[in-house]
Amino acid sequence: MNLSELLYKVKDIMNTKFIKVKENDTVEDVSNLIINNNSDEVIIVDESEKLKGIFTRNDLAKITSKHGSMKDGIDKYMIKNPIVISPEESARHARDIMIKNNIGRIPVVKDKKVIGVVTSNNLRDTFYLKIDEMFDLQNNILDNIHEAVCICDPKGIIIYWNKSSEKLYKLKAKDVVGNKLEKYFDDAKILTALKDGKTIENIRHEPIKGKSVILSAVPIYNSNNKLVAVVSTDRDITEVVALSKKLQSANAQVEFLSKAYSREIANNYKFQHIIGNSKKIIESIALCQKVASTTASVLITGESGTGKEVFAKAIHEASGRKGQFVAVNCSAIPEHLLESELFGYVEGAFTGAIKKGKIGMFEFADNGTLFLDEIGDMPIGMQSKLLRVLQDGIIYRLGSEKGINTNTRIIAATNKDLRKAIKDKEFRDDLFYRLAVVQVELPPLRERKDDIKDLINYFVKQVSKGEGIIVSGVDQNIYDILCNYKWEGNIRELRNVVQRMVVLSNNGYVSKNSIPGYILNCNDLKDFNKSDNNEEVDEFDLEERVKQLEYNTIKEVMSLTRGNKVKAAEMLKIKRSTLYYKLKQYGIMDTCQ
Fold first, then answer.
1. H or E stretch including 117?
2. Which residue has the higher pLDDT, 199 or 538?
3. Is the confidence at residue 5, as pLDDT, over 70?
């Protein structure tokens, strides 16, 4: 739909002062009305004002030539069922109907009643006379848009140049209109669109030095598919380009600040998933946070299952390094394969090698972290090769003499005493000092009893989510028992035990019965479960008998209330402060609660 169709509708150009007669009026009456009003037509309606037909001055001449009676009713000679149009239709549509049907007028009907008439005279005198007004409006629109607009004819001569073009290129319309565009621009894309007859959309262009624009050029065709013009729009992005260059020049500083920010965030948040509030574990976390963003090698020591890999991953995540975290268990890979796993190999390096070769873990962890677990089990011959890589950062694939530079951060871990291994000639002292630039020693779980309850709760949530089991509650006695067990397998063993208890829970309630028997029967728990064992008590020692009864009663109520001290105090009919004292006295509430 073009602008004229949007602006001018039938209601804007119709004649509302038309002559209206009834269908039973005579030809003579109608003739007098036409002559006296100098009208070309009358509209015939019925008693309810509905359109019945049209009678024109030409129809009157036909009656006279045929010697029809002037006393006849007008309905005998009117044009019945004439074409009508809505007042909301475009004036152009009315014109098209009249041309197509070779008629000179159309009644305008609304709600089945005639409200006006559109004639060829209306179109000529009203619609076409408003074309100038329409073009003025279009020019005002084009002059007030932000983009520079240029229109050229098929010969490349400028026929329109809006105010934004004047502002952008410092050329007045009065100076350029009528001249060829190439006179002002050596590389005008509008001429390319004109030549190729194809649209150019949103390309970055520099029509003149120092002016950057986003340009589109569209060829315009008439109804006969003949090229009649081409229109271009240029959006000025000179300031944007200048700003982009400034930003690029400051890129190094931005990157530096970004890394610094990332490291600060990492130091504060990347260790939050490590559970523990005991002094030793907090000291270990603080040390790892401090060295995470550096390039220093880290050696993590501790018994098996103390969480060495968890700490290694946390250090990597907090380091801000963009590469991957890659873990290698040095004790799990045969000696003759370890070198190829770490450094990779080329085609034909050995029998059975992959045809295209293979990259090693050092390359895979480039710009990241390589975690060498169980480093104490690395063969002595392999240790010297690892030392060389740590010294210069260059690795050689097996079967190749071409060095490859890597930027890999090393974190090693072991449960062995490496200093003893050095004395026994099982570990190189120079490699030890390279790996242990920073040494982190993780305490065994038996030295972290303050953390066991938090670890239990953490693993209960983790396992229940993984297994799809909704845990409704946990028997409080579980904390007492597990806190007093010697965890030779450390955190790894604790997690496995918690997984067993969650899986064996009844209706989501984790009870004491789900604890493995070897823990319940452990000698370390005998002293704690005095009342549950057959330790002999003097049957006449009233004080001890009362203590034993009180201990058993309190423990049973705490179990029934699932550790809810408020409910337990109510059931025991004692003050809550008294309950707290008794719990502490009998060791029912110890450091793990």
1. strand 113-119
2. 199
3. no
Query: Distance between CA 365 and CA 571 in Å, rounded?
Result: 61
Q: Which helix (H) or strand (E) holds 18?
A: none
Predicted pLDDT at 270 = 60
> What per-residue confidence (pLDDT) applies to 59?
82
Q: Hey, which residues does 327 pair with through a beta bridge?
A: 371
The token pair at 308 is 């060495």
As beta bridge partners, residue 299 has 412, 439
Query: What pLDDT does residue 348 have?
Result: 65
Task: Tokens for 218, please give them.
Answer: 């569209």
Q: Is the pLDDT of residue 526 over 50?
A: no
DSSP lists the bridge partners of residue 85 as 108
**Bridge partners, residue 394, by sequence:** 405
* Res. 58 pLDDT band, cuts 50 70 90: confident
* 369-373 vs 325-329, strand pairing mode: parallel
Domains observed in the chain: 3-130 (3.10.580.10), 145-240 (3.30.450.20), 260-443 (3.40.50.300), 446-525 (1.10.8.60), 530-585 (1.10.10)
Structure tokens at 465: 């989510």
What is the full DSSP assignment across 517-585? Answer: HHHHT-GGGTTTTGGGTT----TT-HHHHHHHHHHHHHHHHHHHTTT-HHHHHHHHTS-HHHHHHHHHH
Q: Is the dihedral of CA 19, 25, 29, 35 positive or negative?
A: positive
**323-345, pLDDT tens digit by residue?**
999 999 998 888 878 888 898 88
Q: Which amino acid is at 210?
A: G
Could you tell me which residue, 252 or 284, shows the higher pLDDT? Answer: 284
Q: Which residues of 44-75 are buried (b: 16+ CB within 10 A; e: fewer)?
A: bbeeeeebbbbbbeebbeebeeeeeeeeebbb
The pLDDT, as a whole number, for residue 346 is 82
Q: Are strands 79-80 and 105-110 parallel, antiparallel or unpaired?
A: unpaired
Structure tokens belonging to residue 283: 């000291």
